[in-house]
Specification:
Elements (H helix, E strand, L loop, with lengths): L1 H16 L3 H6 L11 H4 L10 H18 L3 H22 L14 H18 L2 H14 L16 H18 L4 H9 L1
Helix pairs in contact: 4-6, 5-6, 5-8, 6-7, 6-8
Length: 190
């Protein structure tokens, strides 16, 4: 997670140095077909107005990323991929102002919400009391951030990225299912 964090801060420095060109070039513009590839790049770029956007995302990204990585590389990559894609596609399809004002969405918060969602529900699918206990602790520590997945919580915040990222993380937990999967259960029976 340290390397990812360094990369995000280098990209932010470049974005600030270029006056926000990376935001304009690599952020998601809802329903603009030319912006579909930006689903891949938008989580790497943060608001160039100041460092606050990236700073606010850093701690939860490191914490949730680390906790997800503890489940193994496959689960980590699956949770990140589902969260990343669901968040970006949700923003592309449903993002923007209700009044048609142009908008550009950037930031890792959709992925963060996805990792959070994954950590909250995976214990139920894995039937793991330890993971359920972790989910309870995370809700107590970070539960209020779930309000960020509700429409219009704050001006300039993409609740769509949060909501669809959260859904992507939950979907990743469903797809990954119980620990070990069917192959692991067959091996235990032999």
């Amino acid at each position: 997670m340290a390397a990812v964090t360094v990369v995000l801060y280098v990209i932010e420095a470049l974005n600030i140095a270029t006056g926000g060109l990376l935001t304009l070039d690599f952020g998601i513009r809802p329903r603009d077909p030319s912006s579909l590839p930006d689903i891949v790049t938008a989580p790497l770029v943060h608001d160039a107005a100041n460092w606050n956007h990236l700073a606010a995302n850093t701690l939860p990204l490191v914490v949730f990323g680390f906790l997800t990585f503890l489940a193994g590389l496959r689960q980590f990559l699956t949770a990140v991929a589902f969260s990343w894609f669901a968040s970006g596609l949700g923003v592309w399809l449903f993002g923007g102002s209700l009044f048609g004002a142009p908008s550009v969405t950037v930031g890792a918060s959709g992925v963060i919400f996805g990792l959070f969602g994954f950590l909250l529900v995976r214990g139920f699918f894995n039937r793991s009391w330890g993971q359920v206990l972790l989910a309870v602790v995370l809700v107590l520590a970070y539960g209020s951030v779930l309000l960020g997945a509700l429409p219009n919580v704050a001006r300039g915040v993409s609740w769509q990225a949060h909501l669809f990222g959260l859904a992507g993380g939950v979907l990743a937990a469903v797809v990954l299912g119980p620990s070990g999967g069917a192959a692991g259960r067959r091996g235990a029976e032999a």
